[in-house]
Structure formats: structure tokens, C-alpha cells
Amino acid sequence: MGERRKGNSSKGEPKKVSNGQSDSLGQWGRAWEVDWFSLAGVIFLLAFAPLIVYYFVMSCDQYQCSLTAPLLDIYTGRAELSDIWDKTPLLTWKAAYIYAAWVSFQVFLYVCVPDVCHKFLPGYAGGVQDGARTPAGIINKYQVNGLQAWIITHILWFANAYHFHWFSPTIIIDNWIPLLWCTNILGYSVSIFALIKAYLFPTVANDCKFTGNFFYDYMMGIEFNPRIGKWFDFKLFFNGRPGIVAWTLINLSYAAKQQELYGQVTNSMILVNVLQGIYVVDFFWNESWYLKTIDICHDHFGWYLGWGDCVWLPYLYTLQGLYLVYNPVQLSMPVAVGVLLLGLIGYYIFRMTNHQKDLFRGTNGNCKIWGQKPKYIECSYTSVDGKRHHSKLMISGFWGVTRHFNYTGDLMGSLSYCLACGFDHLLPYFYIIYMTILLVHRCIRDEHRCSSKYGKDWKTYTDAVPYRLLPGIF
């Protein structure tokens, strides 16, 4: 609900704002205190999230993507855990070289190649941008060049595939499980480094949160914006690169593998590539807007982001394409068109809902939403210095339908990816299940902050817009 800012300063140093403009520290970031329920959730994820990723990947590699077959084999005695592990490809030097080259290349593009796309792409806000105000009152500068990195990477990918032939387009899927060990090494390494850095040499000491619980601090992070040098911001880099840049390359590698194995690329694989490609390009086109989202504005950098972005994202967000390598699906034309329309409508709702919010904020409500002047709730809150501040919460357009209708559009798009895979297996539907849990949890987190911030004004707002995601249901 914070104010959106844009900037194009040529300097990379963070700037400090007065405490009078800062929100209450209690409204920022993760929890200060850890209850037993939160601690149990943290320990569960630390213990089982890596196993979940391994189980999904292994089930495809050894059981044609059946999630129940491995359990049945173990239960009936046809296989033991050691048998499954013995069949699992191990780390190879080839995979290590590939992954090291990949991460190094993305670091180079992030740190050493300033953005030029904003100079010739109308409407694109790249280059040096201001982030949101941190709890310590710092406004960090960011080099927004994700779209440029994505374009350069994919130009080189297609140049190799159709001209240079340095490596096979199936290189990713061919080394998929050895690469899993590489991503885990990086994920754990950067998470441990972030923990040590927060204690010994934090970028901004006042932006650190210590709960005193090792497991919680390790997972959820201590430092708000760990950085090395002027430009390398851990949170922005690992949130967007190398995982999301790789997302579309991984799908392309899956498509190439389908062509190699079956002599064709199915329309379901094309749909997954197109719909997820739209999501990825949209992410990078709006990277400066992303600087003001909950991920950057409230999450600290720990295992949750470090390991999650290195391992969880590239391996579980791409399950639909992986599934279609092992189980090719050719959809009928009506079904294919229906899936495409669901994905495009979901994307339209997601993007237009965010656009309406940005337009409303950018004009202070002096605009038209759906042809009419928008309605809003006047809210006020008190900052730590005792000063009273005012803001507006829009209740028109999509924001009058539900309080998080952008998430509704996001879930529609997520569902379309899964539907492209048919209904023979549960595995490709993990994504919609996971995204539903994630976004519902995010709704609750966001609204808890807003309730603490706005008090009775938030109750007035929720009375005007009573539903979170689905009108009349939730």
C-alpha cells in the first residue's frame, strides 16, 4: 500500500530519508518474534522442501512423472529408497561447468552491462531506479536491466541453436538432475553467506532483524538488502536472475527434447512456452515496478529467497514442460484455444489490475477507471515520530471487485499452464496448488500489515470490498 516512486539518478549510492517519513518498523519485513507454529513451519520447510524438489524430479526421471508410483513401489517392497537413489544421476563436472558459466554470465550482465533498453523502448522504465524506503530510512538505487539480460541471453540461445551449434538446445534437460545438485550448492552457499554477512559486515546494520532463533533467522533472513559493492543486490539478483531468465530457456530445452524424442513439438508444449514466456517477459518489463512489491519491500534475504530462487523456482515452476517431455499431450483445437484464452484473460486481469493501482497512485486519484472518477477510502496512520499521514485506498475498477484481484488473474494464468497438460497425472497441477497457498498466505500477510497500519480505516475499506480473491466466495 506504499507510495510508488520512480527515479533515474545516475548515482548508485543509497540515500537516507528522515525518520519523519518512515513507517513504523513493526509494519516492515518479517516478524520480530517467533511463535512455535512459525518455528515448526520453518523447520518443516528446511527439512522437506529439498526432498520435495528431489521427489518431483526423480518421479519424472524414473516413473514417467507419477507421484504415487514410487511410494507404491516402496510400500509393496518392489523397490527401496536406496534403489531409487542409486538410479539418480550424480553431480558431474560438465554440469558444474555449465552452471558456473551460466551464473557468471548473469552476474556479468547484471553488474557490468548498464541498461540501454529504456532509451529506445517506449514505456519501459529501466536503468537506475529508486527502491522503496527501508525500515532504516534508506532508499537504495538499483540497476534495472533484467529485460536487457533476458534479451541478450535469448539472442545468444537462438543464435547457437540455428547457426553456431556450440551446444545442443537440449543441454539443460540432458543435464537436469546433475544441475539440480549445482543449484543446491549455490542456494545453500548464498544462504549461509547471507547469514554470516548479517552478523559480521551487514550493508545497513539498522535494517537487520535478529529474532534470536537460529532456524528462523537462517530461513527468513536477517539483512534486509545485503549488497556487495555499489550494484550487486542479492535480493534483486536472485529473485530475477539466474532463475527467471532461465525459466524460458528451460522450457525451450524441453521443447527441443520433445522434437528430438518424438519428431514434433506438441501444441500443449507450445502453449506452456507461450503463456509462461508472457509471464517472464512481463516480469522483466515491469522490473522497476517489482521493486515496490512485497518481495523487495518486506522480505529479508535468507534461505527462503536464496535457496528458493536457485532451486525451488527453476525446478518446480517448470514442471509442466518437464511433464510434457515424458508425457506428450496433443490437445484438441477447442481445448487448446480455451487454455490459451484462460491464460490470456488471466494475464489481462493481472496486468490491468496493477495498472489501475499505478494510475490511481500516480495521479492521486485524478483519473478515470472504467470511464468514471475512482472512488476511494481516505485512510490515515501514525509514524514512529508521532506524525499523522494520509493515503487513499481505491475501491473502483478491479479493486472494487476484490482486494487482491491481481492475484486472481495470476491464479487464472497459473491454472492455464496446468490445464495444458491434461488430466492423467497430478504432478503438473502442483503449480496451481502451490501458487494458491502462496498467494492466499501473501494476502493474509499484507492485510495484517495494513490492519496494523490503518486501524479502523482498514475495517471501513474491507467493509466496502469484502472479498479477498473470489467475489462472493473468499
Automatic annotation (TrEMBL):
Main location: endoplasmic reticulum
Key word Endoplasmic reticulum present: yes
Membrane topology listed for this record: Multi-pass membrane protein
Functional pathway: Steroid biosynthesis; cholesterol biosynthesis
Cellular component per GO, a single term: endoplasmic reticulum membrane
Catalytic reaction(s) noted: cholesterol + NADP(+) = 7-dehydrocholesterol + NADPH + H(+); 7-dehydrodesmosterol + NADPH + H(+) = desmosterol + NADP(+)
GO biological process: brassinosteroid biosynthetic process; cholesterol biosynthetic process
Lineage top rank: taxon: Eukaryota
Record field: transmembrane: 36-57, 147-164, 176-196, 301-319, 331-350
One Pfam family this sequence matches: ERG4_ERG24
Positions of the UniProt region annotated as Disordered: 1-23
Basic and acidic residues: compositionally biased ranges: 1-16
Enzyme class, UniProt record, top EC level: oxidoreductase
Gene Ontology MF: a single term: 7-dehydrocholesterol reductase activity
The protein's Enzyme Commission number: 1.3.1.21
Keywords: Cholesterol biosynthesis, Cholesterol metabolism, Endoplasmic reticulum, Lipid biosynthesis, Lipid metabolism, Membrane, NADP, Oxidoreductase, Steroid biosynthesis, Steroid metabolism, Sterol biosynthesis, Sterol metabolism, Transmembrane, Transmembrane helix
Compartment(s): Endoplasmic reticulum membrane
Function: Catalyzes the last step of the cholesterol synthesis pathway, which transforms cholesta-5,7-dien-3beta-ol (7-dehydrocholesterol,7-DHC) into cholesterol by reducing the C7-C8 double bond of its sterol core. Can also metabolize cholesta-5,7,24-trien-3beta-ol (7-dehydrodemosterol, 7-DHD) to desmosterol, which is then metabolized by the Delta(24)-sterol reductase (DHCR24) to cholesterol.
UniProt record similarity statement: Belongs to the ERG4/ERG24 family.
Protein name as it appears in the record: 7-dehydrocholesterol reductase
